[in-house]
Design brief:
Blueprint (H helix, E strand, L loop, with lengths): L5 H17 L2 H20 L9 H10 L1 H35 L1 H6 L1 H7 L4 H12 L3 H25 L3 H9 L4 H38 L5 H10 L3 H29 L1 H11 L1
Helix pairs in contact: 3-12, 4-8, 4-10, 4-12, 7-8, 8-10, 9-10, 10-11, 10-12, 11-12
Length: 272
């Protein structure tokens, strides 16, 4: 057997340190919180119907996966369709507000004022008008998520300097070319900031809609589990909802890196 040299030991130590460093700090923080939670519940002997340990929640996800998965797909469909409708409404509306003084004075204040209306209060009206299908859920998602898209898109489109606009016009650029080559690239960081905020609101909107009236979806499962005092199943549904939100946000962030590569390169260079 070949002797273990110092170089071999240093290589293993270096490999282990690289593997540990590859794990995102957020996962280490999450693992620490879950460990504290598990120990606190075990040591304090807290009943599971009050606060189940993370191990029991994970076991519930595994055992109840055959129900969680199809209902998660329903909620994901509501979130995705509602988000896409919010983008289809919010971004063109922001363009009209920026390019039309009438729209800015007539519609923009109404959009801001509409956010003072509690969406939970009007959710029953959506069910009355649109029934108990997919339509009212999508409407509620749109009502919750389109506002940050509009506001951030307006701010981004207005961020183009006058000098840049005058320069484009002096070079003979048309209105469309000025928008496509100057305003839109300048506005993309703000637009994506609104889109990322809308991802979280889309998930919240879908769950709120399912709370009000639904026969499927993760919000529906939470209500049923709560009626049966199955706290572990409620936590399992909440965990799946959180995963949907995290994955949705990560996908959008990846799209942002592809759409705005210069912003990523600038951030890296600023950090050295």
């Amino acid at each position: 057997m070949a002797p273990i040299t110092d170089t071999h030991f240093e290589y293993k130590q270096s490999f282990l340190s690289r593997a540990i460093g590859a794990v995102p700090p957020a996962l280490w923080a999450l693992a620490g919180l879950l460990l504290i939670w598990e120990l606190a519940v075990r040591l304090a002997d807290i009943p599971s119907f009050i606060l189940p340990p993370p191990s029991a929640i994970f076991e519930e996800i595994v055992n109840y996966g055959h129900r969680l998965a199809p209902n998660a797909l329903v909620t994901m469909g509501e979130v995705l369709l509602g988000f896409l409708c919010s983008v289809a409404v919010g971004v063109p509306l922001a363009v009209m507000i920026v390019y039309s003084r009438f729209m800015e004075k007539a519609i923009y204040p109404l959009i801001v004022a509409s956010q003072t209306i509690p969406k939970v209060a009007i959710a029953p009206l959506m069910l009355t008008w649109f029934g108990y299908g997919m339509a009212p859920k999508i409407v509620i998602v749109v009502l919750l998520s389109f506002f940050p898209i509009v506001i951030n898109s307006v701010m981004g489109l207005k961020s183009a300097s006058r000098e840049m606009i005058y320069l484009s016009r002096s070079m003979g650029a048309s209105g469309w070319q000025t928008f496509w080559k100057f305003r839109l690239p300048q506005a993309l960081p703000s637009i994506f900031a609104g889109l990322k905020l809308a991802t979280a609101l889309s998930v919240i909107g879908a769950i709120v809609a399912e709370f009000i009236g639904a026969d499927k979806g993760l919000g529906y499962l939470i209500l049923i589990a709560g009626a049966n005092f199955d706290i572990a199943r409620q936590f399992a549904s909440v965990v799946v909802i959180s995963l949907i939100g995290v994955v949705f946000f990560a996908v959008l962030e990846r799209i942002e890196r592809i759409a705005i590569p210069w912003r990523t390169n600038t951030a890296v260079s600023d950090r050295g």
